[in-house]
UniProtKB/TrEMBL annotation:
Keyword Phosphoprotein: no
Protein name: D-2-hydroxyacid dehydrogenase
Source taxonomy: Bacteria, Pseudomonadati, Pseudomonadota, Betaproteobacteria, Burkholderiales
Matches recorded under PROSITE patterns: D_2_HYDROXYACID_DH_3
Top-rank lineage group of the source organism: Bacteria
Pfam families xrefs: 2-Hacid_dh (PF00389), 2-Hacid_dh_C (PF02826)
All residue ranges annotated as the D-isomer specific 2-hydroxyacid dehydrogenase catalytic domain in the record: 72-329
Any one Gene Ontology molecular-function term assigned to this protein's record: oxidoreductase activity, acting on the CH-OH group of donors, NAD or NADP as acceptor
Species name: Ramlibacter aurantiacus
């Protein structure tokens, strides 16, 4: 009889659907903040659903009390075989630890793809159409049109590189093409037919950056993408290029970006993710008029949480029928242990 670790909200709102997918013998082990599960109860756990309400306002390193408790319960379940998470990335330390322990992990990749793509598009339009300038002018009660030599260049005809070709990256590329931009896509492993669709491997970034007015990051943090965008890449872009990061903070060398912004090599950035989250109050990014800071919130939308659960329900039915799981994490997303 399988036992599933869930939050009280999931047990309350999806109990019937979980039993329909997992069979009538499915037992729900509910992580209650007031009464955590005992070691004996955790011994019975086979599967865990880390839902969005569990994550709450946690970052990778700063956890809410309930997220901390849920992580402790996950790590205290010695028979845990499979865990589903509400994100596309698996770089949270607890996810990495369970991966190293041999736990299978499936993601909710695609559940927030449209929302993230829309947020990335917001960043492109704010930076490319003078939005940050007008926000600051409004705060100063200034009528400050951008005309003549100060008029924004046409977006149509510009070139963008979208790093990451998962559901988010593909959605961003489609929206940018709709605006008339020429788009190159980058992914870790090129596939047959990619060249005809302007999709390349990560190794092409340095060369392609020479023609890129926009660099949009929508990839996971792996050993292949850590600091992928460094000073060399930023300085290769045409002067005045712009950066949008809705992927992971560790993909971008933040010190190199600050230096490029200071010199004018990069004229603006929209950053939703950072190496340290929450972004410290003393970070230079906060005060820069050429930077839009959003608090790792690009994927937030009213329907996101339930879409993640429905992805899990589909996989739970597959698990029950001993069928392959969808969106299972591959080995190359396991990060090495951090240095001690």
């Amino acid at each position: 009889m399988p036992t599933l670790l869930v939050s009280p909200r999931i047990a309350r709102d999806f109990g019937a659907e979980l039993r329909a997918a997992g069979g009538p013998g499915l037992h729900l082990a509910v992580v209650d903040a007031a009464m955590p599960l005992s070691p004996g109860q955790l011994e019975e756990v086979d599967v865990a659903l880390v839902s969005l309400d569990v994550i709450g306002l946690s970052t990778k390193t700063v956890l809410t009390p309930y997220m901390r408790l849920f992580c402790e319960q996950l790590l205290g379940a010695p028979r845990l075989r499979w865990m589903h998470i509400p994100s596309a990335g698996v770089d949270r330390p607890v996810f990495q630890e369970l991966l190293r322990r041999g736990v299978r992990v499936t993601t909710s990749s695609g559940a927030n793809a449209q929302a993230v793509a829309h947020t990335a598009l917001m960043g492109v339009l704010l930076l490319g159409r003078g939005g940050l300038h007008w926000i600051q002018a409004q705060r100063a009660h200034q009528w400050a049109p951008l005309r003549g030599a100060e008029a924004p260049p046409d977006l149509a005809g510009q070139t963008a590189i979208v790093v990451g070709q998962g559901p988010i990256g593909r959605s961003i590329a489609q929206l940018l093409r709709t605006l008339g931009l020429r788009v190159h896509g980058l992914r870790h492993r090129p596939q047959p037919g990619d060249a005809g669709q302007q999709i390349h491997g990560y190794a092409a970034l340095g060369e392609l950056a020479r023609e890129a007015h926009w660099l949009v990051l929508a990839c996971p943090l792996t050993e292949a993408t850590r600091r992928l965008v460094d000073a060399r890449v930023l300085n290769a872009m045409p002067r005045g290029g712009r950066v949008v990061n809705v992927g992971r903070g560790g993909v971008l060398d933040e010190a190199a970006l600050l230096a490029a912004l200071e010199s004018g090599q990069i004229s603006g950035a929209h950053l939703d993710v950072f190496e340290q989250e929450p972004l410290p109050p003393g970070s230079a990014f906060w005060a820069r008029p050429d930077v839009l800071v959003t608090p790792h919130n690009a994927g937030s939308s009213a329907g996101y949480a339930d879409r993640c659960v429905h992805l899990f329900l589909d996989n739970l039915a597959r698990w029950t029928r001993a069928e392959p799981l969808l969106q299972e994490v591959a080995g190359d997303l396991r990060l090495p242990l951090p240095p001690r």
